[in-house]
């Protein structure tokens, strides 16, 4: 069995679960499509704690995502495939999605870029974010819009860029000065207890 066949067979194994456990379909569809809102809220909450470590974490997450998206676009030029529902018969498609290049998965890149960053900064609760990223990737297969390879490569790219950014960005003086300038402006407009923490 070659990798192409393994990719399709694994997709069928996961996607067909929606035909057996139909009661889980609404939850999986919600996770696949709307869990990005929870990620956005998490990012906002971390930023507005006015904690410098949290803000460094958010900056690293955005940089990791930007780098991962660039790598993902390059990977998409080297290999492409449409969504499973557009290529295979009898796919359990649960959400609306345009037909385009689904390799690699942008949703998975987004979640693993940020969630891996959260894990690197705070391993204790960061593992929960990593589990969320895994669940989102799994749900994208369940609802029929991505192959396992789309999700796997997206996860690898997100984890790689998050790790590289974590090892480099926090030590840059320009980034530290940027955060210090933001804190200075906040103290001018919103005086109060300074909750900043030096990274």
Structure description:
It contains 9 helices and no strands. It has helices at residues 3-15, 17-20, 25-47, 52-78, 84-87, 106-121, 123-142, 148-168, 173-189. α4 packs antiparallel against α6 and α4 packs across α8. The protein has a single domain (27-92, 100-189), classed as Phosphatidic acid phosphatase type 2/haloperoxidase (Vanadium-containing Chloroperoxidase, domain 1, Up-down Bundle), CATH 1.20.144.10. Residues 59-166 form the Phosphatidic acid phosphatase type 2/haloperoxidase domain. Keywords: Membrane, Transmembrane, Transmembrane helix. InterPro entries: PAP2/HPO, PAP2/HPO_sf, UPP_Pase. This is Bacitracin transport permease protein bcrc.
Work out the radius of gyration: 19 Å
Largest sheet: none
| CATH-assigned fold name | Vanadium-containing Chloroperoxidase, domain 1
The CATH homologous superfamily name equals Phosphatidic acid phosphatase type 2/haloperoxidase
How many structural domains are formed by the residues?
1
Portion of residues within helices: over 70%
Mean pLDDT score, rounded? 93
In terms of quaternary structure, what is this? single chain
Taken as a percent bin, the fraction of beta residues is under 5%
Structural class, by secondary structure, is mainly alpha
Distance between the termini: 50 Å
List unreliable stretches of 5+ residues.
none
Number of strands: 0
By CATH, the architecture is named Up-down Bundle
Broad shape: elongated
Q: How many H/I helices?
A: 9
User: Tell me, what is the CATH class?
Assistant: Mainly Alpha
Order of helices and strands: HHHHHHHHH
């Amino acid at each position: 069995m070659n990798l192409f066949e393994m990719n399709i067979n694994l997709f069928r194994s996961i996607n067909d679960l929606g035909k057996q456990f139909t009661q889980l379909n609404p939850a999986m569809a919600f996770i696949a499509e709307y869990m990005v809102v929870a990620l956005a809220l998490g990012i906002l909450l971390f930023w507005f704690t006015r904690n410098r470590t949290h803000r460094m974490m958010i900056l690293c997450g955005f940089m990791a995502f930007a780098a991962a998206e660039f790598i993902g676009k390059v990977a998409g030029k080297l290999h492409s495939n449409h969504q499973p529902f557009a290529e295979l018969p009898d796919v359990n498609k649960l959400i609306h999605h345009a037909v385009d290049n689904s390799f690699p998965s942008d949703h998975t890149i987004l979640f693993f870029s940020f969630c891996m960053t959260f894990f690197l900064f705070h391993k204790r609760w960061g593992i929960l974010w990593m589990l969320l990223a895994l669940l989102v990737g799994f749900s994208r297969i369940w609802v029929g819009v991505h192959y396992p390879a789309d999700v796997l490569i997206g996860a690898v790219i997100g984890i790689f860029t998050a790790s590289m950014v974590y090892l480099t960005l926090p030590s840059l003086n320009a980034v530290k000065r940027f955060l210090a300038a933001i804190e200075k402006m906040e103290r001018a407009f919103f005086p109060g207890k300074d909750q900043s923490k030096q990274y």
